[in-house]
Design a protein that fits this description.
By secondary structure, the protein is α/β, with parallel strands linked by helices. The chain is 34% helix and 22% strand. A 7-stranded mixed β-sheet has the order 3-2-1-4-5-7-6. The protein binds S-adenosylmethionine. This is Phosphatidylethanolamine/phosphatidyl-N-methylethanolamine N-methyltransferase.
């Protein structure tokens, strides 16, 4: 079993302050899908998810990604924000998606046994939780050996110039609830995974697509 200790071992994980998201829902729903939905759909489709796959999506939000999952898989989305989940539930009901469920849960403390899912996904969430390393450990813990992990997120650029420019906006984005200085390699250290790819869908994209296999 994967150990969950971290630098702040013993402390209770602090859930993200999600009032921000509660207040932001209307603006978020108007703007965000246009930016991100196509990228999520393309990368989920590329995984060729087989029939019967048990999928966990961490930080499912309003359920923007949900239509991209095949109906032959079982999808569970979790999120801390009740208002985000309420929107996702409306979407699920409207589309009569029997294969999808959502529930309230802290990404840093997933309430599942080890090795419960074949595929664990997360989009644009790991940089808003209080402890990204803890969230990543939890995603890996609940993934079955041989299963896969898909994360799409902004990570700190490998180009020092771009990294410095983006870092300078960090004070603003942090006030908005997310950080821009997350180093992808820091998250992956010592985890029982093999990184299959960590790429951008195009060179100008701010977002990286991490695909890893649980060993
Ligand atoms: C930027 S939104 C992304 C939502 C969705 N994945 C998308 O791409 O549209 C980040 C999400 O993370 C959720 N979140 C923040 N902290 C969390 C935590 N500790 N546990 C679970 N969800 C959390 C927020 O409520 C929000 O829905």
């Amino acid at each position: 079993m994967l150990k969950l200790e971290s630098k702040s071992e013993g402390s209770v994980p602090q859930p993200h302050e999600s009032h921000f998201y509660h207040n932001l829902v209307p603006a978020y729903q108007a703007l965000w899908p246009a930016v991100a939905k196509r990228r999520i759909q393309a990368n989920l489709t590329a995984l060729n998810i087989p029939a019967g796959t048990r999928v966990l999506e961490v930080g499912v939000g309003t359920g923007m990604s949900l239509e991209a999952y095949p109906e032959h898989a079982d999808i569970l989305g979790v999120d801390l924000s009740e208002s985000m989940l309420a929107e996702a539930e409306v979407l699920i009901e409207k589309n009569d998606w029997q294969h999808i469920k959502v529930r309230s849960m802290n990404a840093e403390q997933l309430e599942f046994e080890d090795a419960s899912f074949d595929l664990v996904t997360s989009f644009h969430t790991i940089s808003v939780v209080s402890r990204p390393d803890q969230m990543m450990r939890e995603m890996v813990r609940v993934c079955k050996p041989g299963g896969r992990i898909l994360v799409i997120n902004h990570f700190r650029s490998e180009n020092p110039l771009i990294a410095r420019v983006v870092d300078s906006a960090g004070g603003i984005t942090r006030r908005l609830g997310w950080r821009t200085d997350l180093e992808v390699n820091d998250l992956l250290n010592e985890l029982p995974i093999e990184v299959e790819s960590c790429h951008k869908n195009n060179p100008l994209s701010l977002f990286r697509v991490l695909v890893a296999k649980r060993v």
